[in-house]
């Protein structure tokens, strides 16, 4: 005899919503601050968002591309965009919130400034060392 089968359709998949970790006080990330930090100090917006590895990656990417025309500007602009959109996604709960400290961000900026100074001193020394001395 014929049997009737009932099929129940699965509910549509939804975006995961990440909940706050216990003991972590979640404050909204300031998207403007993330973008401004990354504008002036590449990677610092990512560090502000708690993504230290990504911030270091942007800094290294800028150094690697610094001898190729236009690429550093693309890396820099993308870094600003990434910091802003990542902060937005954290605020909306689309990606996990990562706490960060002011000390970590400031430390990253200080290290970045020191690296830039050393880089320019190195370039200056290379230029001076390759030019003939006139007395």
Short description:
The chain is mostly helical and 135 residues long. It is built from five helices and no strands.
Write a concise keyword list for the protein shown above.
elongated, 135 residues, mainly alpha
Describe this structure in words.
- The chain has 135 residues and is an all-alpha fold.
- It has one domain (31-130).
- It has helices at residues 31-40, 44-48, 52-65, 71-92, 102-130.
- Helix 1 packs antiparallel against helix 4 and helix 3 runs antiparallel to helix 4.
- It is elongated.
Uncertain spans: none
Proportion of residues in β-strands = under 5%
What would you call the shape? elongated
State the end-to-end distance.
110 Å
What's the total helix number?
5
CA gyration radius, whole angstroms:
23 Å
Q: What does the oligomeric state look like here?
A: single chain
Mean pLDDT rating: 87
Helix percentage range: 55-70%
Instruction: Determine the structural class based on helices, strands and strand pairing.
Output: mainly alpha
What is the succession of H and E elements? HHHHH
Count of spatially separate domains: 1
Work out the number of β strands: 0
Main sheet attributes: strand count, strand direction, barrel closure = none
How are the secondary structure elements laid out?
Blueprint: H1 31-40, H2 44-48, H3 52-65, H4 71-92, H5 102-130
Helix pairs in contact: 1-4, 3-4
């Amino acid at each position: 005899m014929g049997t009737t089968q009932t099929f129940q359709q699965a509910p549509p998949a939804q975006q995961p919503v990440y909940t706050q970790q216990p003991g972590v006080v979640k404050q909204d990330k300031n998207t403007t601050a993330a973008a401004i930090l990354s504008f002036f100090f590449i990677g610092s917006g990512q560090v502000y968002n708690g993504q230290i590895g990504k911030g270091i990656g942007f800094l290294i990417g800028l150094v690697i591309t610094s001898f190729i025309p236009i690429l550093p500007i693309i890396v820099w602009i993308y870094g600003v965009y990434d910091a802003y959109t990542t902060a937005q996604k954290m605020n909306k709960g689309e990606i996990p919130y990562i706490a960060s400290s002011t000390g970590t961000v400031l430390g990253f900026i200080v290290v970045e400034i020191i690296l830039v100074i050393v880089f320019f001193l190195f370039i200056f020394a290379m230029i001076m060392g390759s030019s003939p001395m006139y007395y």
